[in-house]
User: Fold these one by one.
Assistant:
Number 1:
Amino acid sequence: MKNTALLLGFSLCVTSLIAESNWPQFRGPSGDGHSQATKLPIKWGDTENVTWKKRITGKGWSSPVIYGNQIWMQTALDSGRSLRVVCIDKTSGKRLHMIEVFHVSQPEKINKMNSHASPTPVLEEGRCYVFFGMYGAAAIDTKTGRILWKNETLKHDHDQNGAGSSPILYKDKIILNCDGTELRYVAALHKKNGKLAWRTKRSNDMSKINFHLRKAYQTPHVIQVNGKDQLISMGAQRINAYDPNDGKELWYVDIPGFSNVPRVVYGHDLVFFATGYMKPQMWAVDPTGSGNVTKTHVKWRIIRQAPAKPSPILVGDTLYMVSDGGILTAIEAKTGTEIYQERLGGKYSASPILAGGNLYYCDQNGTVTVVKPGREFKIVSKNKMAGGFMASPAVSGNTLFLRSETHLYRIEN
């Protein structure tokens, strides 16, 4: 019995370590930017605490994701004609795979702030799933680099902005937001073959809304409410909750925004989200309702200095949000009361992470500001790198991975 107990304890410890080493989707294992790392570096430079850096061919704002000893990202070559996924060895920085997933003869125009490869892949044992918006989704064998399937039926118009929404996994499905100007829907594909499992059209009628105000780029998120799973998915002018098993709409809240980007976070029985362009707001909604709950389940709103692109992050009882212009606001999550509002400096697109007891904010000029959570504003360090950051950080063990405009960095003490 003693040996059995020791073996069980060892097995649980190994399982925990393996889980902590994986960062399989946009914003990490739980999709909220939280890492279990305890000794992440707080100071580094182009040479200090940098184990290796690897130039990433092409252009893409896709964030790095990690499973086992592999790091995956999307990238685009030849001005968006060659849409690819690249795999890097986590230990050495050596490139393992560079795979063209789609070839586009006439790439769409994109916003100058975007790339043709901005969605982040999602990983599981043996598979990498990628999404390039209107061009489709695919599954790749992570060992061989072989493309297992493609689905090119997910048509929607990005309105000359490019793709932005990342895929997520749920049970035996991959779930995608497809919010264009004419076609606006959420889709689930079977992971094994890429065939459509369900597809749900957005419920709000936007036929009288300006053509350019109908699109969205948000990454969906699954939460559990009263023992049941809800898929939280935001499109233009409305945030919806669906049953992720079949796509049935559960509730919705009408909001004043479009081109929605930040991923929602969930805690204290509230869903926290930014409403999108033109003037973003931060809202908190009780997800226990049914149908139209706009007038009954919105618990608070903040209309100043909310982000249009970076996602918020929840630490204990405090919600932190950084505006695109670099204003950091700490908020009492349950009430919406402002704790402080301070300037970080810089401009922001990447979403923050919490690791080793600190918050990490990466700006578009290449500065990573480390902030100590709490009721008082405290900058721990500022770290300047060559090249700016549009991609969000990833963590594996006590190692930080940063993708700049040109390179992938492995940073550790």
Number 2:
Amino acid sequence: MKRLSATNVARNFSAVLDEVERDQEEIVLVRNQRQVARLVPEAPRQDALEVFGDLYRTIDDDTADSLSAAIGATRKSRRGRLSELRDPWAG
């Protein structure tokens, strides 16, 4: 964890953000010898398939099969016709 003065960060904000992104290190902003804020790198972005893959590896086979079947059933049930949709403005 790196400590920088709020003035220094304000003067070099773009460079500081680049450093947080590049080094993936938290930076603490200090004003008058007190910690006032933290710049924390964003967690790596994951799409739904990556999250599902991580979940799939942590559960047992029976639960994984049940979850997969439930998702498949939900996908099939959503395929309807436009005329079957409920009109939200209808009285």
Number 3:
Amino acid sequence: MEATITQVFSKEHSNCDKIFAQAENLVANKQWAEADSEFNKFYTAMEKHFTAEEEFLFSTFEERTGHTMGPTQVMRMEHQQMRQIFAQMQTSLAQQDDEQYLGLSETLLMLMQQHNMKEEQMLYPMIDQALANEIATIFERIRASA
């Protein structure tokens, strides 16, 4: 049996969380070059994840269910909030401002935890159910776009 949306995307959350924690540790230790590199890995992984959700998962779910103003809209808004924090974090890295970075990182961590919980416990299972016959095709489309 092919993996579910919940399984694959929850694993991506976990992988992004690990990179995020590593970047935070590097900033805390003022290892700026390594922190910048690790943050860029985190940022790239998050953008890839957001793009897969927004362009493939959410859009297909909305087309099939007709729900365009529900949970997918909330998730997109939260993605935008996180993107704004990413930009501020990049600025604090460039300025080697560990206090600002770590404060932003604390805010982002809370936002990501709440966001991921909503996706993993509510939205992904809804998508798995609504798109059960299309999951393999969705994964193929995501892989082809990478």
